Amino acid sequence: MEKTTFVKAKKNIAENVRRQLLKLSLLDNSFTILSDSSYIYFPLKDQNGIQSLMGDFGGELKTVKKLGVRINRRADDYRYGLGSILTQKELKDFSSGYDAFGNIAVISLPDSLAEKENDIAKIILNSNKNLTTILKKAGPVKGVYRVRPVKYLLGKRTYIADYKENGCRFVFDVRRVFFSTRLAYERNRISNLVSHGETVMVPFAGIGPFAIEIAKKRPDADVVALELNKYGVYYMKKNIKINKANNVEAVLGDFHEASKGYRLMFDRIIMPLPKSSTVFLDDAIAVAKSTAVIHLYAFYEKDRINELKDEIIEHGKANKYKVTFLFERVVRTYSKSMIEVVLDYRIEKQNTVWAMQ
């Protein structure tokens, strides 16, 4: 920390003061804005230019010397820019940052920052040359299709993302389909596990990232991707063409119903539906060959992962197949108590039982 000069403003006029300081290029964005219970403290670049501004506010502003927190970040880091318009508390409130889908950023803002949303959007847009559009989350993920409402803020008015990952390109409407960049590592990991000539089933496939990344790496694999959302299937088919992944079959349908037409066909089943994947264990086993690998994603409490394993083992006992766990990994933290975990496991069916079903 080091001493620097601040403009001291009461909270009820602080936003107007901030805008004027920006307009006059007097705000020093190499220091964070400070606050206490009654005042906001804006770091100054030039004391000499402040006199006219102080007059505009009728003597309500004062300059003070205080210990300031210097922002030691790269100039192209959007948080560096945010330090010039947000207090330290506001920066913490904005800790979740944004999700970037290629050309589109979707930011998550608390209600307390609503008045500054356009300024925040401008800084983010200018910090990343790949971005053309800034949207704002306008509600939670909801419904069976797991879609989230969004609000346009700044830049090109579009909702069609153009996103690249692991050598593949995906286009999709962020208002119509679910997509998570947080599974990029998992998609790469699993696509590297697929052997030549495998048959792979991906229920809950969305716009097709798991299926297409596998198909690109293993052109001799046969991949079936199931999705219940018609918009998901629409964009999956577009992405299959874009990536020339002709060994992917995109199917519109419910896994429970569709599984009846794919019995005993697949070497590998990928289940990226963490909120309810275990509900579909019967269907996964039905489409699996006598020996197969399942990748199951689930939300679970941090200290209770063994209960998830026990549930899978008990399902195996009840349905006459052996379970061997191969790998487990925490994919991400979902909440204070919940994590998303992936379990890879091999199943071996008792053939005499399954041949009769």
From TrEMBL:
UniProt GO MF annotations: tRNA methyltransferase activity
All copies of domain SAM-dependent methyltransferase TRM5/TYW2-type, residue ranges: 98-349
Keyword tRNA processing (UniProt): yes
Taxonomic source organism: Candidatus Mancarchaeum acidiphilum
GO cellular component, one term: cytoplasm
Biological processes per GO annotation: tRNA N1-guanine methylation
Protein name, entry field: Wybutosine (YW) biosynthesis enzyme, Trm5 methyltransferase
Keywords: Cytoplasm, Methyltransferase, S-adenosyl-L-methionine, Transferase, tRNA processing
InterPro entries (alphabetical): MeTrfase_TRM5/TYW2 (IPR030382), SAM-dependent_MTases_sf (IPR029063), TRM5-TYW2-like_MTfase (IPR056743), TRM5/TYW2-like_N (IPR056744), Trm5a/b_N (IPR040601)
UniProt superkingdom: Archaea
Listed Pfam families: TRM5-TYW2_MTfase (PF02475), Trm5_N (PF18093), TYW2_N_2 (PF25133)
